[in-house]
């Protein structure tokens, strides 16, 4: 690995085909979308950043420690989480100088070659911080100091970055138990940035969530409903959904192990719920309960208009030892094979043809793009496809998404891009990658005479801006 | 969406790579196949068209109402089937002016951007009807009138189009209960067009088909066999297969939910059949029965020489409400994950090495191309691979088919193109797309020096013409 | 098919993109790796070749009969194994002139168009034997005579070819029952070629292997351990692993039907083992036993440092009739859908975070690349990804491997190329294809400005030479 100081550049034509005919079209298409405002309808930024508007601490705290994408790769090559100073589950933390942790990233930055992380980080380094040399062992301190100092400047406060990034709207994701205080503070502050929430009920709908019993209790306290009866529990959801909608939410989000849905009678559902709250639910009961909840949430969406998002198929916290020591969200989540055609039928039998209902589907199982998701979205009025998600949110993954959903689903059953990130500084980079990939994809269709360029020019603006606004009712 | 009148063109190089080296080769290869006659060995055109040779009614009746590919996309965006005038299951139909239905297509034609439907329709508009402006809201009436008037001209009668399309042979698909009268009329008419049938026994072999009981009864009446005894039932199949073969059939076709085959003893099969005809078969019995039928059909193919086709893995009529109201075939069929290696073993254990037996496999599960289908076809003498099917019958899907079957299966275990359509006018467009994609695919291999151009030139003719004739014994 | 004498050439730019920008980069990258020594850490060449250094018999014995890739394609098109002179299971063999068998290959060489076999064979014909006309019916005898005569020359003896091929190291694969005599002879001979073994225990760890009972008995005789007790059995493995390591082995290799692992207590494992040796194990017991063995092997690897390889997901000898008549390894092995996330968890729960443990994963199910394998390897320190395997060891398959593992796994969790072949003469061709595909893949990333060329130049050397040496501890 070289340690010489080498230039860092973002090429204007990055991600466009090297074929001159395609590249020329891609450039013209990109000119239509490069400067459009960012619509970020699904993500995990922390609303306290925008409420408090305090400076970020340093390069390591901002760019390395919260980003699974980044530290999982270092971990995979034998760098321990303690060596990076990742907080442990018990709140303790190895005493590591953040500058030294940063050095581990710098020394191993070659591991990210070709990955989306390297594209996003280099974009941040170049465009946000104005760095013009590459990150490596020799430039590690220069990077650390430059970034850490910059973060103390007013121009790098969260709200200033929000504005500089040209974010028209960003959605965060909160539990039903969240008082949404930060969102209230943002609105009360008079600041013009639009930060909305989304209703993510996992802890109160998943009997296998480790916080389920305590979360359910708090759910009752917050809502004043008898959440240990099925009808009271459903009323509590309705109440909190209305509260979220009032705070700006236009969507709900559901992260289940599978896409299973169910259509139990009220009596059956009530009986199952009793078993769940009694703590005697088997794994199959828990799965059925989650399945029924999706259908209940769809019913509520029909009433309150919240757009429903389903993010299924993840085995959370797969690394047992790491989970025991460091807790959740340590880069050990793994995709699972996921089935949709049978799984969604109970819900679709009830609501699939409802004009007022929208369900946006995601997947970690790309084999379903052409086989299941595009055929479903290309038929059911209620169904739309979310963009390439998580492990697939890279140029190759986005390209496969388009290539495998186009034939049956077209472009207009998709909803534009989600950055789905807590890495705030990378948001412009991520949207830029998505826009470039769509431009490159459409440029190929134009250059191979499957679409006229004026159609592509209209379409690329729809994908970058109009479709997300329409799909998420923004 | 624009409403200006914009030109419609079919570029000579469409679907060829924009790389000049590849494009030049693709053009030369395409020159070998562009004007070859069409062999259509598997499809769903209506033989009454060629028997009666009556004019098609109007643009909507011809191009919109019968085409799932088209109206499912409109439906997915909230346009009801009633708004299009799609007939309901009870025979009634919303009173819709077909000109207005056409307008819905025209206004929403942007939904099809990049899809195969837009390619096929534009090809039909341009080449069959000579239209030179794009379809949109502003040209809707012009289109409707132009097409509807043209259809009254002799040059647009079914037989004239058949000849103009340079169709050397087309196969339709009929139930064993069909008297094949239209085929007889065609042969008796003295017209030279070659229209043959194929034996598609679904209603009499699937215990879960809603018409199974009545179909079985009619099967007995037509054949004079005791179709409620296993041996009589098998004899009835043999008799009808012979009848179909006499009417020109060279193949059978089987559309099962899975690829399961079985190899029961005659006693076991007979016992299972008794259960099936008694109406007491469980879902598992029905699956086993269909599995056994495939093996029985293979045994008969060995005797009568009919080539066997298997189209598995479709969940028919997934949209319950739509099925209740409008019946079958309303764009709500969905692909299922499909397994072949274990499923086909019972049949292959008996017939996989038989020189006289041919089984052509299709799939809606592309993940099986490289994992299962190509390895099977690249070993078993009896197995061949049908082309990219249905949801995958698009340039991207065809490309994936080639790219994922080439390594283990080569080109010569594939059987050329099937249009598999009831959209008669689109047949030249579909074959043209398939030929262009194969030319583009081979041009890449030539340009990357993996094959010499003379080999590709020979191969592309084999793919377009010789392989289908050989595979289907035409 | 032509029978004229047409030139055979290997183009310098083969497998590089025809886009001039990409091709120029690919050429420069390839210049870095074209002449690097071959590291072949996993394969199936016969060590007796290098021990005895006797001439190969003739073209057919060398290039056709041992190569599944080749004769399976001929078989798929109706050429019987007897017509080729393939030995039968009982040791008999059809009396076929090898020149006539070769003619069948020559006459049907068009079947291989576009496949890796044609690339490898043409490379051997051109570079190893200096042939400059294509193989076809007209040149069959010329080929047969030229190759067969060449094989009698000293320059074509196994050791001379080994040196000419610039092989720095080759690993073979042996059963624990193998005395490793050929390896000892090679070392004793004073010849400098480095030929090492690998520990492949399938016959003594798979209760469903037809040789399991006799293999177990011999395992006891060789090691002097009581291999009918669980602890004695484990000691026997440790002893043989040490013996293999002393003979140069740095790895073990495991070919299981699935990737299942287990984590039984010693008491449970011992009880299961008793059932297995009693011959009363069910299919589920056998699967659980193999699963437990993988975890035991991992535990031993932690002690003795042997790198573990897992090649799961193959249905061996799928063609029953062929297996009965000709035995194993006749081109009838078929890939199976394979699951890793749940299957590997028991083993990973114990050893996934161990710094001293390495497990290299392979697959025949490409749908797992992006969904399971890259996410696993991009997190667990113990896990690495072997290259595109067997049915996927072709340019398209290699390209998909890179494209689908890059995002989550990067390049540095992969281990370079394995040729995995018994076709000795094709080894340079196979490594050349792998190097060219990696150069082409990286050239695309460079030309699309996702990586600088100096990074790609370093990376391509890592992929071709440094990563395999490091991964396999060579």
TrEMBL record, chains A, B, C:
Domain of life (superkingdom): Bacteria
Any one GO molecular-function label of the UniProt entry: glucuronate isomerase activity
Transmembrane segments: none
InterPro entries hit by this protein: Metal_Hydrolase, Uronate_isomerase
Gene3D superfamilies membership: Metal-dependent hydrolases, uronate isomerase, domain 2, chain A
EC number: 5.3.1.12
Chemical reaction(s) catalysed: D-glucuronate = D-fructuronate; aldehydo-D-galacturonate = keto-D-tagaturonate
Keywords carried by this UniProt record: Isomerase
Annotated pathway: Carbohydrate metabolism; pentose and glucuronate interconversion
Family, similarity comment: Belongs to the metallo-dependent hydrolases superfamily. Uronate isomerase family.
Protein name: Uronate isomerase
Species of origin: Dyella halodurans
Gene assigned in the entry: uxaC
């Amino acid at each position: 690995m070289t340690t010489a100081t080498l230039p860092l550049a973002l090429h204007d034509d990055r991600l466009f085909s090297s074929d001159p005919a395609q590249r020329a079209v891609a450039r013209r298409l990109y000119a239509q979308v490069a400067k459009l405002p960012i619509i970020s309808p699904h993500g995990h930024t922390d609303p306290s950043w925008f409420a408090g508007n305090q400076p970020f601490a340093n390069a390591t705290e901002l760019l390395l420690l919260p980003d699974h994408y980044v530290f999982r790769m270092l971990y995979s090559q034998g760098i321990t989480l303690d060596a990076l100073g990742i907080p442990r589950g018990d709140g303790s933390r190895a005493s590591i100088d953040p500058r030294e942790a940063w050095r581990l990233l710098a020394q191993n930055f070659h591991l990210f070659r070709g990955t989306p992380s390297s594209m996003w980080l280099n974009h941040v380094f170049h465009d946000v911080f104005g760095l013009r040399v590459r990150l490596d062992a020799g430039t590690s301190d220069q990077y650390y100091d430059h970034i850490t100092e910059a973060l103390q400047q007013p121009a790098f406060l969260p709200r200033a970055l929000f504005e500089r990034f040209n974010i028209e709207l960003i959605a965060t994701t909160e539990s039903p138990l969240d008082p949404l205080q930060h969102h209230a503070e943002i609105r009360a502050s008079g600041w013009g940035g639009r930060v909305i929430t989304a209703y993510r009920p996992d802890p109160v709908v998943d009997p296998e969530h480790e916080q389920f019993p305590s979360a359910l209790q708090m759910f009752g306290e917050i809502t004043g409903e008898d959440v240990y009866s099925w009808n009271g529990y459903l009323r509590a959801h309705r109440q909190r959904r209305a509260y979220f909608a009032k705070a700006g939410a236009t969507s709900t989000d559901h992260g289940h192990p599978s896409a299973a849905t169910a259509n139990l009678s009220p009596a059956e559902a009530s009986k199952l719920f009793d078993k769940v709250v009694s703590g005697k639910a088997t794994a199959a009961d828990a799965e059925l309960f989650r399945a029924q909840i999706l259908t209940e949430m769809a019913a509520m969406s029909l009433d309150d208009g919240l757009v429903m998002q389903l993010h299924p198929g993840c085995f959370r916290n797969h690394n047992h030892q790491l989970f025991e020591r460091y807790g959740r969200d340590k880069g050990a989540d793994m995709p699972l094979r996921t089935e949709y055609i049978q799984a969604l039928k109970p819900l679709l039998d009830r609501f699939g043809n409802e004009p007022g209902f929208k369900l946006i589907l995601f997947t970690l199982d790309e084999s379903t793009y052409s086989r299941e998701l595009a055929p479903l979205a290309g038929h059911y009025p209620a169904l739309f496809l979310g963009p390439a998600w998580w492990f697939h949110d890279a140029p190759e993954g986005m390209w496969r998404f388009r290539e495998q959903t186009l034939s049956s689903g077209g472009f207009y059953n998709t909803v534009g891009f989600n950055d789905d990130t807590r890495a705030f500084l990378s948001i412009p980079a991520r949207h830029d990658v998505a826009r470039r990939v769509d431009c490159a994809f459409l440029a190929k269709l134009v250059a191979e005479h499957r679409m006229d360029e004026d159609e592509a020019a209209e379409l690329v603006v729809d994908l970058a801006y109009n479709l997300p606004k329409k799909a998420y009712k923004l």
